[in-house]
Design goal:
48% of the residues lie in helices and 11% in strands. The chain is of the alpha+beta class.
Length: 385
Amino acid sequence: MEFLLPIEVKICIDTLENAGYEAFCVGGAVRDMLLGAGPLDFDVTTNCPPNEIMNLFDKTVPTGIEHGTVTVIIDGFAIEVTTYRTEDGYSDSRHPDKVLFVGNIDDDLSRRDFTVNAIAYNPKSGIYDPYFGRQDLQKHILRTVGDPQRRFSEDALRIMRLFRFASKLDFRLESESHNAAIKLLPLLEKISRERIFGELTAMLCGKSAENANPFFLSGALAFLGLGKCDIEGISSLPRDRSIRFAALLILSSSETAVLENLRADNALKGEVASLLRLYNEAKIDDSISIKQALKAEGADIVRKYFYLLSFFKGADIKALLSELERIIKTGEPYSAAQLAIGGEDIKNAGFSGREIGETLNKLIDEVIADPSLNSREKLMNIITK
């Protein structure tokens, strides 16, 4: 089997081989190519020492040179090149205490997490697959390389990666790998919140997120405030992280403090808070209530909220979205910026300070209820009564 590798990856492999070393494309890129997908990131593994990798290429970055990883940049294309290695001792259940560079690709592949990620490819020699990862790809199965308890104990983040790949690839879990992952879930307390957040986001936003349901049913992240829940059906929601995180918090009866504990970014925290505020407080079922929601949260949040409304309450999302788009397209006012008068007009009418903002707010509420009031004459009449 031959893959169409990016020319930069071919140059990278050729350069290493011309210097007398072995080189293979490995990991997620090979997995995705075998699945017929076009990978964006490429990793190369080689028996070339890290310092020699840096000597062979014009532009490199010592990304993780202590672990044998150098980023090679060819015509702006970044490729992570890592020396064959084995690892030993994982006292923090995340990082190896000791890394040993080796000359054998078999030793390197033996340390990898899942069989589908332990497939190597060289344009000349083809696919090298000592752990039968291609068979697991064909069967849509995720299993660890070797003993699952050992793999997960070495790096507890692999537990979340197992469920993340099940969600992303729509694969089922091999029973021993599944059982070991569930048994060792308490190890996740040792993992950084940022890494948990990254894996959880990818898991929750996968095309087959329900495949990760055992993870959510287990209450694995109770130490971060996330309750047990059943996410069955969540894949019917758009693969938008704020929609799915809002749904997760609703399903698990959890507070937004979970996002703080996960070190989530402010953009996500703000959007989820807005969605939950609408879910808990708003009743949106007609044009006026839609405009009131638009005034409070903006069009993007209201659109996303409609999907939650449909998912949890069976609302007619087509009708709601249609009315939303009509309001926006026709320019029917829902914000103070759309009023026929502005703050200066109100100031000239004798108002000052906070009165100006309060008056604008009162006017937009009246115009939301009756769009025909949005003329300069009518609005000035209202405020000068």
